[in-house]
């Protein structure tokens, strides 16, 4: 794949030495104080931190460190970041990490410039921030596509919610696969599965008739499946990792969603599971998807059957539409086993079955890909995941 620059509202610098190209240019017109936000230390170990600090110093910036953003970032961490940004009079936030770091910064960017509590504002007053500190994102773990949108997923430990909160768009995103090569194999695969999940949850939304977005989505899904299989043979394969990095962005840059109402019921269930267990996002999705789709595929058998044929390559010969739809769900479950992701919550290491009822009682219910589930049905699905 050739390097390129692409504008969404997020300007994407993609490819070799993308940070060196992006930072001098993008930071030229922002103030001197840059908050450098990152996670638990992987960027320090990989050398990415030092490299980025070098670019910032060359650009004459003063660096304010904001370390320790955890996977499944908490609202408390958001508040810590916002307080630090105010105290140090930060002019620009640079998020360096995976979805968790980027998401946390998108809300820090909003909270730093208002005295209103963002959670209260969005969930009680149903109003959304419009002013932000400017920010940029440097991706070190792809899969979520968090760098491409202004949605975030934040865990509020006080209310036991892991919920979608709207924040800032990054002005620019740096996607250089070299920064992701230190990611552990398990996280590479669970991140790539997250991308596949985003595509499926978009594809299986409404309307049920196939449109251009769906056909592009089919191509992205085939690409993700093929490149995960390449990585199973050779985890260091840069071309496959590069393809997956762009597929991750494609799934969340809005293109696949054009003209569609998306589903994202699997995500809603997984997020609440995360609120109670702090589990890995891609792993949770891997367990939930086949079970959820077993429950739903006959309700929207046309779209599920097309997915089976176009993405999983299953022949329609001798099968009814419903049988083809079910064969696609079985192929998905087989693929999850093939790539070493868990198929049950126990395989994920969960031990407390009592959380399932709490998850069923508290997760958002979307219109679903074809029907709105009842809480009893969600619980049934979760029990089957155990
Ligand atoms: O914290 P550090 O030390 O950096 O370690 C991280 C973390 O432990 C590590 N890591 C990241 N880059 C690395 C690396 N380790 C070695 N080398 C590197 N280059 O990976 C671990 C997981 O990182 P995290 O950011 O949590 O993973 P991911 O990118 O999967 O993000 C998950 C979060 O994003 C949310 C999820 O719910 C979850 O909270 N999502 C955000 C979305 C969005 N904003 O659009 C959409 C998604 O559906 C998702 O819900
Ligand atoms: Zn996701």
Structural class: alpha/beta
Contiguous helical run count: 15
Name the ligand types: 5,6-dihydroxy-NADP, zinc ion
- Computed CA radius of gyration, to the nearest angstrom: 20 Å
Report the mean per-residue pLDDT as an integer.
96
Strand content: 5-15%
Largest sheet, if any?
7 strands, mixed
Strand order of the largest sheet: 1-2-9-6-5-3-4
The helix/strand series, from N terminus to C terminus, equals: EEHEHHEHEHHEEEEHHHHHHHHH
Cα distance spanning the termini: 41 Å
Helix content: 40-55%
Low-confidence stretches: none
Shape: globular
How many runs of DSSP E, i.e. beta strands?
Answer: 9
Q: How would you sum up this structure, described in words?
A:
The two termini are 41 Å apart. A hairpin with a 3-residue loop joins strand 1 (4-7) and strand 2. Helix content is 49%, strand content 12%. The strands form two sheets. It has a seven-stranded mixed beta sheet, sandwiched between helices. The radius of gyration is 20 Å and the shape is globular. It has helices at residues 18-26, 42-46, 48-58, 75-87, 99-111, 118-123, 185-203, 212-233, 238-252, 265-277, 281-296, 301-310, 321-338, 355-362, 375-385; strands spanning 4-7, 11-14, 33-37, 62-66, 92-97, 135-139, 151-156, 161-166, 172-175. With 386 residues, the chain is of the alpha/beta class. 5,6-dihydroxy-NADP binds next to helix 2, helix 5, strand 7 and helix 7.
């Amino acid at each position: 794949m050739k390097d390129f620059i692409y504008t969404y509202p997020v300007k994407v610098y993609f490819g070799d030495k993308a940070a060196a190209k992006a930072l001098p240019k993008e930071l030229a017109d922002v103030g001197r104080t840059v908050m450098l936000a990152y996670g638990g230390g992987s960027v320090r170990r990989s050398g990415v931190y030092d490299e980025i600090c070098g670019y910032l110093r060359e650009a004459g910036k003063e660096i304010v460190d904001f370390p320790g953003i955890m996977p499944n970032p908490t609202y408390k961490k958001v508040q810590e970041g916002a307080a630090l940004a105010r105290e140090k009079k930060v002019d620009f936030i640079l998020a360096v990490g995976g979805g968790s770091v980027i998401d946390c910064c998108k809300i820090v960017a909003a909270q730093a410039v208002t005295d209103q509590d963002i959670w209260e504002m969005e969930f009680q007053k149903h109003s959304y921030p419009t002013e932000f500190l400017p920010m940029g994102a440097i991706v070190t773990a792809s899969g979520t596509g968090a760098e491409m949108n202004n949605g975030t997923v934040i865990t509020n430990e006080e209310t036991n919610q892991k919920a979608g909160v709207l924040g800032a768009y990054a002005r620019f995103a740096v996607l250089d696969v070299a920064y992701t090569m230190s990611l552990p194999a398990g996280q590479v695969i669970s991140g790539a599965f997250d991308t596949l999940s985003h595509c499926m949850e978009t594809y299986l939304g409404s309307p049920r008739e196939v449109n251009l977005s769906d056909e592009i989505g089919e191509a992205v899904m085939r690409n993700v499946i093929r490149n995960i299989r390449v990585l199973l043979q050779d985890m260091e394969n840069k071309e496959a990792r590069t393809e997956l990095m762009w597929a991750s962005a494609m799934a969340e840059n809005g293109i696949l969603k054009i003209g569609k109402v998306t589903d994202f019921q699997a995500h809603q269930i997984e997020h609440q599971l995360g609120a109670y267990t702090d589990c890995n996002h891609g792993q949770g999705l891997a367990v939930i998807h086949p079970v959820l789709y077993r429950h739903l595929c006959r309700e929207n058998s046309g779209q599920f059957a097309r997915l089976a044929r176009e993405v999983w390559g299953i022949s329609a010969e001798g099968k009814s539409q419903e049988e083809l739809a079910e064969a696609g769900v079985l192929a998905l479950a087989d693929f999850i086993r093939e790539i070493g992701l868990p198929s049950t919550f126990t395989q994920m290491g969960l031990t407390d079955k009592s959380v399932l009822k709490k998850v069923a009682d508290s997760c958002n219910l979307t219109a679903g890909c074809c029907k709105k589930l009842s809480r009893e049905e969600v619980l049934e699905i979760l029990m089957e995941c155990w």
